[in-house]
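Q: Here's a chain of 571 amino acids. Please give me its 3D structure as tokens.
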Amino acid sequence: MALDPITEQVIQNRLSGIVQEMQTSIFRTGYSTIVRESQDASCMILDVNGDVVGEEVILPLHVAALPEVVRAIYKFYRGRIYPGDVFITNHPYLAGVTHSIDMALVVPVFVGERLIAFSANIAHKSDLGGMIPGTGSGSARELFQEGIQFPPVKFMDRGNVIDEVESILRANSRTPEVILGDIRGQIGTARIGEERLHDLVDKYGLETVLEAFAELQNKTEERVRKAISGWDDGVHEADAWVDNDGINLDQPIYYHVRIEKTGSRILFDFSGSGDQTLGPLNIRPPLVRGCCYYAMVAMVDPDLSNNGGLARVVETKFREGSVLDPRFPAPTNSYMASATAVTEAVLQALNGLVPEKKIAGMGGIGGIAIGGEREDGSPFIQYEIVGSAYGARSSKDGVSGVSVLLNNAKTAPIEILESEFPVRLSRFELIQDSGGAGKNRGGLGMVREYQILTHKAQLTLRGGKHSQAPFGLEGGGPGKVGACVVNPGTENEQQLPSLFGGYKLNYLDVISLHKAGGGGFGKPNERRWEQIVEDVLDGYVSFDSALSDYGVDSDQLRQILSEWDGDCELS
């Protein structure tokens, strides 16, 4: 019997609701600030084949990673998967995990003796060993320097914790209670998904639910292929660059995509990208495919379900030994800088097919880790995801001071950081004039300054856009590049690169982290006068920049500013 459309839609909404409940649970039960505050975690429901059927995407690349994890579990444990099992893995090569600082957790869902689905999540871990506090060194040269590596292993066997696995985890982290607390939260979250799926089966019947799993993916595939069929056939190419790999600091990393669209098929060819890097910029092919999923959702419909049906449409080609298909044990902990560059290149190439959705360069994303010992000798790891700015779009200005593209993580609140770690934040604000000038202005980057309140600490940064400026489009100017400076304005000032690990900090040192602004779109002299005045009044654009970048009349601008009383809006 064919599934009626009302029941299909109800089940789809129920699946979405289940994942939303899981997301709320994982954030509320998180021990670490990276999970609890920054929300670097995602939850999903996957069918028995490992294809996504329920998602509420927080971090889009997790959608590409968890199907690989499930398939790896089958490879390692086929015939030995039981009700009550819990699997964990953080291995980028053996299980397709994003990087080894992320821990995937998977619970098989059974109805009776029949395996029907998987309830899964993936969450960042503040420390899993490795060469520096926080694990993810921007100077790592091989995977073995990036902490302990777990292939798919059981953390629980038929409902019982495997003590040896827990002991290994505990012995390989500088902050074991935080790590195990997060993992227990992940288990509880996956159990919620398992329980809600049982409720769904009880209400609608197993075969109806399984039919809905298949039909939801089929509908997504049909919808995407229909959209692609409406685009002109052709070949489009684009490039992107990242500053360096953290080892060879004067050598930018190159990314290239060639998109070939024919009928309802689309191929993303990345074989022209640069060789794998000595440093940790490498990214595995499943995650590159995730970049393509993200870009396709942006081009087709932001509300499109990012499920297994979309994955069927995206065809990819790679070159083994490249930065996008590295050979083991190439390091991968800074993969997100590569993912951002890949996504920007893919979006630019897709603009040849969907020209009305153009967007200028982003300010990039990155992680900062400050780790060491408090004055009482207890260990700490302060890990944050720090956003930047969107580039201007063909119809709007860029958004300021936010995570961009594949990273939806939140900025950790100052109050939380100061209460939990030995730091004081003295500055957190948007950077004037950092957005590229244009008819539509690029978003503004932001600056955060930290003062260190302990004698034993190290700094690690996994960022970018310190030398490769966010590009402008159609006459728009580039965004201002970022920077990381220790003790700015003093005789001890030290300019640091965008990617490094384990820089020693002293008591009362100040770290000033500047994030790049977004690129501008269109010619600056075409920007509306009222918008320029508002930008100056808001402090987004300086008086001098309004004159030099936008060519406004000095006397006229002074007159307007002198008359401004703050009680009305310019329009």
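Q: Can you summarize the key feature?
A: The chain has three domains: 5-222, 358-526, 528-571.
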